[in-house]
Specification:
With 203 residues, the chain is α+β, with helices and mostly antiparallel strands. It is built from two helices and six strands, in the order ααββββββ.
């Protein structure tokens, strides 16, 4: 093989290597973008499902505990605190990608046409279940209350008449949280999960 042929082969290899580097430089950002998008999409979906599950646990607990306050099922606590404890045990707040801003328990009102909305003062002017309005309790993840206007002991759980309300109370659990995207500078996403259920009649 002549020196001229060897030199030509080396030039071709050099051009191919340079071409590969250019192609990689052009495609690498798109490849990593797709990878990060897939990872963050999966983590976001997982986090949403985890918070949604915890909210379901909290709502079912509230419905079952009803107006429990220092009773046999919550001797040193109340229905809200039992629900918050079970929500934490269900995984709420266990990942650094999710920051729980607040957990709100709101009294709901069933209208004559069957729709459910927040309870307001005009629904029952003489109502004593709510110590103030809006008729709700707002908690941090650790269970401390920044608002406590609907004490669990005051909740209607036996279907008895109470002003214009003639059935057990409905309750709404709202979990407000922020999702922090992994490995990117993408702005955080604020999400609220809402669950509504009628409180169960108590024995």
């Amino acid at each position: 093989m002549t020196a001229l042929a060897c030199s030509a082969r080396r030039r071709r290899r050099s051009r191919c290597a340079g071409q590969n580097l250019v192609e990689f430089a052009l495609l690498a950002p798109l490849f990593f973008f797709v990878v990060f998008a897939a990872v963050n999409g999966g983590l976001l979906l997982y986090s949403k499902n985890a918070v949604d599950h915890a909210a379901d646990v909290g709502m079912v607990t509230l419905a079952a505990e009803g107006n429990c306050s220092n009773g046999p099922n919550c001797p040193t606590s109340d229905a809200d605190q039992v629900a918050l404890t079970r929500m934490r045990n269900a995984g709420l707040g266990t990942t650094s990608l999710v920051s729980v801003a607040s957990i709100t328990v709101t009294r709901e009102f069933e209208t004559s046409n069957g729709t459910i909305r927040d309870f307001v003062q005009s629904d029952a002017p003489s109502d004593r279940n709510c110590t103030n309005f809006p008729c709700e309790n707002i908690y941090s993840l650790n269970g401390s209350a920044s608002r406590f206007y609907w004490p669990p002991a005051n909740r209607l759980v036996n279907g008895g008449a109470n002003g214009s309300q003639v059935t057990s109370d409905f309750a709404k659990v709202s979990v407000a949280y922020t999702y922090h995207f992994f490995g990117t500078s993408h702005p955080d996403v604020n999400v609220t999960v809402v669950k509504v259920l009628r409180l169960e009649p108590q024995q």
